[in-house]
What does this fold into?
Amino acid sequence: MNNLLRGWLNLPPQASTYAQDVDLLHYFVITSTMLGSVFVFLLAVYYVFRYRQRAPRATTPRVKTSAPLEFLIIGGLQTLFLGFWVVGASMYNHMQTPPSDAMPIYVTAKQWMWKFSYPDGRASMDVLTVPVNRPVKLIMTSRDVIHSFYVPAFRMKHDVVPGRYYTAWFQANTPGVYDVECAEYCGVSHSRMLGKVQVLTQDDYTHWLEGHPVPTAEGLIGATATSGGDLAKTGRAVAARRGCFNCHTIDGQPHIGPSWAGLYDSYVKVDGGRVVYADEAYLTRSMMDPQADVVLGYKPVMPTYRGILQEPEVAALVEFIRSIQTQPFPPSVTLPRVEPLGSGQPQEPKP
Ligand code: CUA
It folds into this structure.
Protein backbone atom coordinates (compact mmCIF):
# COMPACT_ATOMS: atom_id res chain seq x y z
CA MET A 1 0.00 0.00 0.00
CA ASN A 2 2.78 2.36 1.00
CA ASN A 3 4.80 1.56 -2.11
CA LEU A 4 1.74 1.70 -4.36
CA LEU A 5 0.81 5.20 -3.17
CA ARG A 6 4.43 6.31 -3.23
CA GLY A 7 4.62 5.22 -6.87
CA TRP A 8 1.40 7.01 -7.77
CA LEU A 9 2.55 10.22 -6.13
CA ASN A 10 6.03 9.84 -7.63
CA LEU A 11 7.76 10.27 -4.27
CA PRO A 12 11.48 9.57 -3.74
CA PRO A 13 12.63 6.62 -1.58
CA GLN A 14 12.00 6.80 2.15
CA ALA A 15 15.57 6.87 3.40
CA SER A 16 15.21 8.36 6.86
CA THR A 17 13.50 7.13 10.00
CA TYR A 18 10.73 9.69 9.82
CA ALA A 19 10.23 9.67 6.04
CA GLN A 20 7.52 7.01 6.14
CA ASP A 21 5.56 8.84 8.84
CA VAL A 22 5.65 12.03 6.77
CA ASP A 23 4.39 10.07 3.78
CA LEU A 24 1.61 8.37 5.76
CA LEU A 25 0.29 11.78 6.82
CA HIS A 26 0.65 12.93 3.22
CA TYR A 27 -1.40 9.94 1.98
CA PHE A 28 -4.02 10.51 4.64
CA VAL A 29 -4.39 14.22 3.83
CA ILE A 30 -4.36 13.76 0.09
CA THR A 31 -6.79 10.81 0.15
CA SER A 32 -9.32 12.48 2.41
CA THR A 33 -9.19 15.79 0.55
CA MET A 34 -9.47 14.02 -2.83
CA LEU A 35 -12.46 11.93 -1.62
CA GLY A 36 -13.96 15.15 -0.24
CA SER A 37 -13.61 17.03 -3.52
CA VAL A 38 -14.98 14.11 -5.56
CA PHE A 39 -17.95 13.85 -3.18
CA VAL A 40 -18.67 17.62 -3.44
CA PHE A 41 -18.33 17.52 -7.23
CA LEU A 42 -20.72 14.55 -7.60
CA LEU A 43 -23.16 16.20 -5.20
CA ALA A 44 -23.05 19.40 -7.26
CA VAL A 45 -23.78 17.47 -10.47
CA TYR A 46 -26.66 15.62 -8.76
CA TYR A 47 -28.15 18.90 -7.45
CA VAL A 48 -27.99 20.49 -10.88
CA PHE A 49 -30.46 17.87 -12.05
CA ARG A 50 -32.42 17.41 -8.86
CA TYR A 51 -33.14 21.11 -8.37
CA ARG A 52 -33.25 22.24 -11.98
CA GLN A 53 -35.91 24.72 -13.04
CA ARG A 54 -38.86 22.59 -14.13
CA ALA A 55 -41.20 25.30 -15.39
CA PRO A 56 -40.72 28.97 -16.27
CA ARG A 57 -40.67 31.16 -13.11
CA ALA A 58 -41.05 28.12 -10.86
CA THR A 59 -39.15 28.27 -7.58
CA THR A 60 -37.43 25.37 -5.93
CA PRO A 61 -38.75 24.24 -2.57
CA ARG A 62 -37.12 25.64 0.56
CA VAL A 63 -34.76 23.03 1.96
CA LYS A 64 -34.31 22.75 5.72
CA THR A 65 -31.66 20.56 7.29
CA SER A 66 -31.92 19.18 10.78
CA ALA A 67 -29.63 20.72 13.39
CA PRO A 68 -28.03 17.36 14.35
CA LEU A 69 -27.03 16.76 10.73
CA GLU A 70 -25.40 20.20 10.53
CA PHE A 71 -23.51 19.61 13.76
CA LEU A 72 -22.41 16.24 12.48
CA ILE A 73 -21.05 17.68 9.22
CA ILE A 74 -19.34 20.70 10.76
CA GLY A 75 -18.07 18.75 13.79
CA GLY A 76 -16.86 15.90 11.58
CA LEU A 77 -14.89 18.18 9.27
CA GLN A 78 -13.50 20.10 12.23
CA THR A 79 -12.33 16.83 13.83
CA LEU A 80 -10.73 15.72 10.58
CA PHE A 81 -8.79 18.99 10.19
CA LEU A 82 -7.79 19.00 13.85
CA GLY A 83 -6.62 15.42 13.30
CA PHE A 84 -4.30 16.62 10.49
CA TRP A 85 -2.97 19.27 12.81
CA VAL A 86 -2.44 17.03 15.85
CA VAL A 87 -0.54 14.41 13.86
CA GLY A 88 1.39 17.08 11.91
CA ALA A 89 2.33 19.11 14.97
CA SER A 90 3.62 16.11 16.92
CA MET A 91 5.64 15.00 13.89
CA TYR A 92 7.01 18.50 13.41
CA ASN A 93 8.06 18.50 17.05
CA HIS A 94 9.80 15.15 16.62
CA MET A 95 11.60 16.36 13.50
CA GLN A 96 12.70 19.61 15.15
CA THR A 97 14.18 17.96 18.25
CA PRO A 98 17.51 16.24 17.60
CA PRO A 99 18.18 13.20 19.84
CA SER A 100 20.81 14.00 22.44
CA ASP A 101 23.24 11.41 21.04
CA ALA A 102 23.10 12.86 17.52
CA MET A 103 26.42 13.33 15.74
CA PRO A 104 26.99 17.01 14.91
CA ILE A 105 28.00 18.14 11.43
CA TYR A 106 28.33 21.80 10.47
CA VAL A 107 26.79 22.97 7.22
CA THR A 108 27.69 26.25 5.56
CA ALA A 109 25.73 27.34 2.51
CA LYS A 110 27.02 29.88 0.07
CA GLN A 111 26.29 30.83 -3.50
CA TRP A 112 26.16 28.10 -4.84
CA MET A 113 27.54 25.26 -2.84
CA TRP A 114 27.27 23.34 0.38
CA LYS A 115 30.19 22.92 2.71
CA PHE A 116 30.18 20.24 5.39
CA SER A 117 32.55 20.34 8.38
CA TYR A 118 32.93 17.34 10.63
CA PRO A 119 33.89 17.51 14.32
CA ASP A 120 37.18 15.73 13.61
CA GLY A 121 38.22 18.71 11.49
CA ARG A 122 37.51 17.30 8.08
CA ALA A 123 35.56 19.22 5.53
CA SER A 124 33.97 18.37 2.23
CA MET A 125 32.22 20.29 -0.51
CA ASP A 126 28.79 19.26 -1.73
CA VAL A 127 29.09 15.67 -0.46
CA LEU A 128 27.86 14.85 3.01
CA THR A 129 28.99 11.46 4.31
CA VAL A 130 27.10 9.87 7.17
CA PRO A 131 26.77 6.40 8.70
CA VAL A 132 23.52 4.50 8.44
CA ASN A 133 21.24 4.09 11.49
CA ARG A 134 22.79 6.92 13.46
CA PRO A 135 21.12 10.24 14.23
CA VAL A 136 22.96 13.14 12.65
CA LYS A 137 22.47 16.73 13.72
CA LEU A 138 23.17 19.44 11.18
CA ILE A 139 24.15 22.87 12.49
CA MET A 140 23.52 25.13 9.55
CA THR A 141 24.20 28.67 8.49
CA SER A 142 24.73 30.70 5.35
CA ARG A 143 27.50 33.04 4.32
CA ASP A 144 25.51 35.22 1.97
CA VAL A 145 21.80 34.87 1.27
CA ILE A 146 18.96 32.62 2.36
CA HIS A 147 19.26 29.04 1.14
CA SER A 148 17.29 25.98 2.11
CA PHE A 149 18.81 22.58 2.78
CA TYR A 150 16.53 19.97 1.29
CA VAL A 151 16.99 16.21 1.11
CA PRO A 152 13.84 14.86 -0.56
CA ALA A 153 14.64 11.22 0.29
CA PHE A 154 14.85 12.13 3.99
CA ARG A 155 11.73 14.35 3.83
CA MET A 156 13.91 16.95 5.49
CA LYS A 157 14.08 20.63 4.63
CA HIS A 158 15.33 23.60 6.59
CA ASP A 159 15.98 27.21 5.67
CA VAL A 160 19.50 28.48 6.17
CA VAL A 161 19.81 32.17 7.00
CA PRO A 162 22.98 34.28 7.18
CA GLY A 163 23.98 35.33 10.70
CA ARG A 164 21.81 32.67 12.34
CA TYR A 165 22.35 29.03 13.12
CA TYR A 166 19.74 26.32 12.87
CA THR A 167 19.79 22.71 13.83
CA ALA A 168 18.03 19.95 11.95
CA TRP A 169 18.47 16.22 12.24
CA PHE A 170 17.86 12.97 10.46
CA GLN A 171 18.68 9.32 10.81
CA ALA A 172 19.30 7.59 7.53
CA ASN A 173 18.00 4.02 7.37
CA THR A 174 19.23 2.83 3.96
CA PRO A 175 22.78 3.06 2.60
CA GLY A 176 22.96 4.85 -0.73
CA VAL A 177 23.39 8.22 -2.35
CA TYR A 178 20.66 10.83 -2.16
CA ASP A 179 20.23 14.29 -3.63
CA VAL A 180 20.66 17.50 -1.68
CA GLU A 181 18.84 20.44 -3.21
CA CYS A 182 18.58 24.09 -2.42
CA ALA A 183 14.92 24.90 -1.94
CA GLU A 184 15.10 28.68 -1.74
CA TYR A 185 15.76 30.87 -4.75
CA CYS A 186 19.21 32.27 -4.06
CA GLY A 187 20.53 33.70 -7.32
CA VAL A 188 21.28 32.75 -10.90
CA SER A 189 22.77 29.33 -10.16
CA HIS A 190 20.19 28.34 -7.55
CA SER A 191 19.05 25.37 -9.63
CA ARG A 192 22.61 24.08 -9.78
CA MET A 193 23.20 24.32 -6.05
CA LEU A 194 23.10 20.56 -5.73
CA GLY A 195 24.84 18.17 -3.41
CA LYS A 196 24.75 14.55 -2.37
CA VAL A 197 24.38 12.70 0.91
CA GLN A 198 26.13 9.40 0.91
CA VAL A 199 24.90 7.04 3.56
CA LEU A 200 27.46 4.36 4.36
CA THR A 201 27.21 1.08 6.21
CA GLN A 202 29.03 1.11 9.53
CA ASP A 203 32.00 -0.77 7.99
CA ASP A 204 32.32 1.57 5.03
CA TYR A 205 31.97 4.54 7.31
CA THR A 206 34.78 3.36 9.57
CA HIS A 207 36.84 2.79 6.43
CA TRP A 208 36.03 6.32 5.28
CA LEU A 209 36.89 7.75 8.70
CA GLU A 210 40.33 6.19 8.38
CA GLY A 211 40.83 8.30 5.30
CA HIS A 212 40.19 5.74 2.59
CA PRO A 213 37.98 6.54 -0.35
CA VAL A 214 34.61 4.86 -0.23
CA PRO A 215 34.29 1.78 -2.47
CA THR A 216 32.75 3.18 -5.62
CA ALA A 217 31.61 -0.24 -6.86
CA GLU A 218 28.38 0.15 -4.93
CA GLY A 219 27.51 3.30 -6.80
CA LEU A 220 28.77 5.52 -4.06
CA ILE A 221 30.61 8.72 -4.70
CA GLY A 222 33.96 7.75 -3.28
CA ALA A 223 34.80 11.23 -2.08
CA THR A 224 37.17 11.64 0.80
CA ALA A 225 37.07 14.65 3.03
CA THR A 226 40.02 16.94 3.38
CA SER A 227 41.48 17.02 6.84
CA GLY A 228 41.91 20.26 8.69
CA GLY A 229 42.90 18.97 12.10
CA ASP A 230 40.69 18.56 15.13
CA LEU A 231 37.83 21.07 14.97
CA ALA A 232 37.74 21.58 18.75
CA LYS A 233 41.47 22.24 18.75
CA THR A 234 41.00 24.75 15.96
CA GLY A 235 38.27 26.34 18.07
CA ARG A 236 40.64 26.74 20.96
CA ALA A 237 43.13 28.49 18.69
CA VAL A 238 40.36 30.71 17.31
CA ALA A 239 39.33 31.66 20.85
CA ALA A 240 42.90 32.62 21.66
CA ARG A 241 43.35 34.58 18.43
CA ARG A 242 40.05 36.45 18.71
CA GLY A 243 40.64 37.40 22.35
CA CYS A 244 37.77 35.33 23.79
CA PHE A 245 39.97 34.28 26.72
CA ASN A 246 40.25 37.91 27.82
CA CYS A 247 36.77 37.49 29.27
CA HIS A 248 35.90 33.78 29.27
CA THR A 249 37.64 30.98 31.10
CA ILE A 250 37.58 27.29 30.36
CA ASP A 251 38.13 26.10 33.92
CA GLY A 252 34.75 27.00 35.39
CA GLN A 253 35.93 30.25 37.00
CA PRO A 254 33.73 33.27 36.30
CA HIS A 255 35.59 36.22 34.79
CA ILE A 256 34.31 39.26 32.86
CA GLY A 257 32.03 36.81 31.09
CA PRO A 258 30.72 33.41 32.18
CA SER A 259 33.01 30.40 31.94
CA TRP A 260 32.68 28.05 28.99
CA ALA A 261 33.32 24.90 30.99
CA GLY A 262 30.18 22.82 31.32
CA LEU A 263 28.20 25.51 29.49
CA TYR A 264 26.99 23.46 26.55
CA ASP A 265 23.82 21.46 27.19
CA SER A 266 23.14 23.34 30.43
CA TYR A 267 20.36 25.74 31.39
CA VAL A 268 21.46 29.35 31.75
CA LYS A 269 19.67 32.04 33.78
CA VAL A 270 19.69 35.29 31.84
CA ASP A 271 18.60 38.85 32.52
CA GLY A 272 14.90 39.20 32.98
CA GLY A 273 14.67 35.88 34.85
CA ARG A 274 14.39 33.75 31.73
CA VAL A 275 16.13 30.40 31.50
CA VAL A 276 17.80 29.59 28.22
CA TYR A 277 19.01 26.20 27.04
CA ALA A 278 22.65 26.41 25.96
CA ASP A 279 22.71 24.65 22.61
CA GLU A 280 24.48 25.58 19.37
CA ALA A 281 21.84 28.19 18.58
CA TYR A 282 22.35 29.88 21.97
CA LEU A 283 26.15 29.87 21.67
CA THR A 284 26.13 31.38 18.21
CA ARG A 285 23.42 33.89 19.12
CA SER A 286 25.61 35.00 22.01
CA MET A 287 28.50 35.64 19.61
CA MET A 288 26.42 37.50 17.02
CA ASP A 289 23.93 39.24 19.30
CA PRO A 290 25.48 39.23 22.79
CA GLN A 291 22.86 41.54 24.31
CA ALA A 292 20.03 39.12 23.47
CA ASP A 293 20.65 36.81 26.45
CA VAL A 294 22.96 38.42 29.00
CA VAL A 295 23.74 35.84 31.67
CA LEU A 296 22.45 36.90 35.09
CA GLY A 297 25.14 38.64 37.13
CA TYR A 298 27.25 39.76 34.17
CA LYS A 299 27.47 43.18 32.53
CA PRO A 300 26.38 43.53 28.90
CA VAL A 301 29.87 44.48 27.73
CA MET A 302 30.49 41.95 25.01
CA PRO A 303 30.72 43.41 21.50
CA THR A 304 29.06 41.63 18.63
CA TYR A 305 31.22 39.36 16.51
CA ARG A 306 28.89 39.52 13.53
CA GLY A 307 30.98 40.11 10.44
CA ILE A 308 34.18 39.49 12.41
CA LEU A 309 34.10 35.76 13.00
CA GLN A 310 34.07 33.68 9.84
CA GLU A 311 31.59 30.79 9.70
CA PRO A 312 34.27 28.10 10.02
CA GLU A 313 35.59 29.91 13.10
CA VAL A 314 32.13 29.95 14.65
CA ALA A 315 31.72 26.23 13.98
CA ALA A 316 35.14 25.59 15.52
CA LEU A 317 34.34 27.71 18.58
CA VAL A 318 31.04 25.93 19.14
CA GLU A 319 32.77 22.58 18.78
CA PHE A 320 35.42 23.69 21.28
CA ILE A 321 32.81 24.83 23.82
CA ARG A 322 30.96 21.56 23.25
CA SER A 323 34.17 19.62 23.86
CA ILE A 324 34.55 21.10 27.35
CA GLN A 325 30.97 20.31 28.26
CA THR A 326 31.67 17.34 30.49
CA GLN A 327 35.37 17.69 31.09
CA PRO A 328 36.01 21.09 32.59
CA PHE A 329 39.71 21.82 32.49
CA PRO A 330 41.27 21.64 35.94
CA PRO A 331 41.82 25.11 37.44
CA SER A 332 45.55 24.54 37.14
CA VAL A 333 45.46 24.45 33.37
CA THR A 334 47.46 27.18 31.69
CA LEU A 335 45.50 29.22 29.24
CA PRO A 336 46.95 29.88 25.82
CA ARG A 337 48.89 33.13 25.80
CA VAL A 338 46.62 35.94 24.68
CA GLU A 339 47.35 39.43 23.43
CA PRO A 340 47.00 42.11 26.10
CA LEU A 341 43.63 43.88 26.21
CA GLY A 342 43.34 46.42 23.45
CA SER A 343 45.52 45.02 20.71
CA GLY A 344 43.64 41.72 20.38
CA GLN A 345 40.22 43.28 20.64
CA PRO A 346 37.94 42.92 17.66
CA GLN A 347 37.04 46.07 15.85
CA GLU A 348 33.41 47.15 15.83
CA PRO A 349 32.04 46.31 12.40
CA LYS A 350 31.92 49.41 10.23
CA PRO A 351 28.36 50.44 9.43
CU1 CUA B 1 20.94 28.22 -2.53
CU2 CUA B 1 18.97 28.29 -3.85
